[in-house]
């Protein structure tokens, strides 16, 4: 063992992955995911404007 062989060995470089052609099903699926993400963001923005939801839970008594 010489001094140059010490330490971690670097892995061989992998060839870059080719971007595969997407068929119609995959394109439709990606489009559907984007639409759902947009709807989710819109609902988050709408919900953040309101205060905390206090429908149920512990009710405080009127005693002073």
TrEMBL record:
Similarity comment text for this entry: Belongs to the TMA7 family.
Biased composition range(s): Basic and acidic residues: 27-44
Name of the featured protein: Translation machinery associated TMA7
Region (Disordered) residue spans: 1-64
InterPro entries xref list: TMA7
PANTHER family assigned: TRANSLATION MACHINERY-ASSOCIATED PROTEIN 7
One Pfam family hit: TMA7
Compositionally skewed regions (Gly residues) per UniProt: 52-64
Top-level division of the source organism's lineage: Eukaryota
Originating organism: Aldrovandia affinis
